[in-house]
Every structure is written in C-alpha cells, then in structure tokens.
Amino acid sequence: MDTSKRDRSGNNLLRHTILSCMAALGIAAMTIGAMAGSASAQSLLERIKNGDTIRFGFTNGPPAAYPGPNNEPLGLVNAMTLDVLKKMGTTKVESVVTDWGSLLPGLQAGRFDIITGGMYIKPERCRNVLFSDPISRARDSLIVLKGNPEGLHSFEDVRDKGLVLVTGSGYTSVAVAQKLGFADDKIMQVAGGPEIAQAVKTGRAAAGSTDFFDAKKIVEKNDSLETADPFTSSSPREYAAIAFPLSEQATVDAFNAVLKDYMGSDEMMASVGKYGYEKVNLPDGTPAAEACKL
Predict the structure, then answer these.
(1) Could you give the CA distance from residue 291 to residue 240 in angstroms, rounded to a whole number?
(2) Shortest CA distance to 241 belongs to which of 97, 48, 65?
(3) pTM: predicted TM-score of the whole model, two decimal places
(4) I need a labelling partner for 90 at 20 to 30 A (CA). Which of 125, 144, 163, 255 fits?
(5) What is the Cα–Cα distance from 288 to 5, expressed in whole angstroms?
(6) Where is average pLDDT lowest: 6-10, 164-168, 204-208, 232-236?
(7) Averaged pLDDT, 194-213
(8) What CATH code would you report for 45-137+237-291?
(9) How far is Cα 102 from Cα 107, in angstroms, rounded to an integer?
C-alpha cells in the first residue's frame, strides 16, 4: 500500500475541511455584521414605529422635565413627548438625565435620541439640531404685592413710576429692562425665585420679573403676592420645542404631523395641567423654521 498517497489524500481532506469551516465562519460573521449594520442604520422613525426604546435626554428641571423615583421621565415636556410617541408607535422610553450644557453634545454623540428638556429654539441651536414645531411659548409674569397697590401692568409702568424691578441675574428681563431705559439702580438682580419674592415682599422692589411657571409657584407659596393681571410683556418671542439630531428630518416631520392635532387638545391639557401648563402657554402657530430666525 502506498502510504504516501494515503497521507496526501488525508491532508487534502483535512485542508478542505478547515477551509470549508473558515468560509462558513466568514459568511456567518458577514451575516452578523450586516445585521448589526442594518440595526444601527435604522432611523429614529423606524425605531419608533417598531416600538423600540427611545432615550429622552433632559436636565432635572421641573416643571418642564425631571426624573421620577424610578428614573421615569416626568414633567410637562416629557408628558407631551410620551403622548406623541405613543401615537407614533412606541411606549418604551428611557431617561438620560444630564446637565444643561451636555444636552446638545449628548444628542450629537448619540447618548440619547431626543432632547425633552423644553429647550428654546435659537438660531445658533438650529444649526446643530432639528426642532419640532413649538410646544409652548415662553411668557414672563410680573409679581407684585397683593392688590397691586402701584397699579403695575408692564415693565413700562415700573419704569415710568421710577420704581425698582427685581429679577434673576442673567435673566432675559435684565436686557429687556435695560433696553427700555431703566436706570441701573432701578434693576435689582438676585439669585432666583425665592429672592425675587423676598425683595417684593419686603418692599425693596415694587415688582419682580420671572417666567410664568416660576411666578406661579412663587405666588402659590406667598399669600402676600400675586401676578399682575393683565400684564403686557416686553420680552421677545421665545418658543420651546423637542430637539432631534440633524439627520432625522423624516422623524421630525412625522412628529410634527401628530403634534399638530395634539396641541391644545383635551388629552394634552389633561397630561400637562398637573404641571401648571395652561392654555395661555400654548404656542401661537409659529413653525420651527420661522422660530429659528427670531
């Protein structure tokens, strides 16, 4: 018997078997890779329609957005977003709570899928994210003593009577008051809501300026204060919205289509009313594209 021929035949068989296994493994690897690539290539809209988990990015900033005891997304903006996403196909969400400065970088890096922190539409932000159409219009309020003894219904009233306006350091109202010609010593800047309330209560300021939701909380906690009614605001128009990655225009379009019928509905007001959102906070129909130019 020619053993050398048998050995060569055995070696050929072994070699063929190894090559076949390697080829099979290669095909499997390519298949797995293709599947993974397909999954990662899915758009946000496809994931929503498939009922996948969508990650919300927001800060701990009530009443707009904040985490619950089990890290569930609470707050009026989260409530709106949950309602809209449910109509689009998913009820599965995950909270990613971060600081304000990390929201835009986090969205761009894929740490979360959308920003639900009630971010205002600004031209510089519109270059980095896509915004849904507005979900609310920013409104400020004027806090005065009960009964409004000075008869203040606008910043101009405070200015014309030579009275002191108190507001938060860095608030938009500082620039508004300066533009209206308030003297520097007639603009008191403090840390925030509690300090604004204290300044008005003690008479160090005749009126305090802050946003609608903060003012509402202040007067609820202080029987000696109220918000001026009516109040004519001098602040620029500002709109809050949901932010999406720049690559998700189709998702934004689908989101806006549902949002259009949802805004102002009984369903929406039932969801957000417990957070202090009222009809007065509804946007005025200005689309995101126009708000990006303000």
Answers:
(1) 10
(2) 65
(3) 0.75
(4) 125
(5) 79
(6) 6-10
(7) 96
(8) 3.40.190.10
(9) 8
Q: Are strands 165-168 and 93-97 parallel, antiparallel or unpaired?
A: unpaired
Give strand pairing partners of 5. Answer: none
**The tokens of 11 are what?**
């070696």
**CA within 13 Å, CB half, 176:** 21
* pLDDT tens digits, 78-100: 999 999 999 999 999 999 999 98
Q: According to CATH, where is 3.40.190.10 located in the chain?
A: 45-137+237-291, 140-227
Q: What is the CATH number of domain 140-227?
A: 3.40.190.10
- Which sign does the torsion angle of CA 199, 183, 189, 97 carry? positive
**Which of 154, 54, 71 shows the shortest CA–CA distance to 111?**
54
Instruction: Give Cβ neighbours of residue 166 (< 8 Å, ≥ 6 apart).
Output: 188, 189, 190, 195, 196, 199, 200, 204, 205, 207, 208, 209
- List, in order, residues 6 or more apart from 252 with CB less than 8 Å away: 130, 131, 132, 244
Q: What is the pLDDT of residues 155-169, one digit of tens each?
A: 999 999 999 999 999
Of 265, 259, 248, nearest to 287 by C-alpha is 259
- DSSP string computed for 225-263: EEE-SS-B--SPP-EEEEEE-TT-HHHHHHHHHHHHHHT
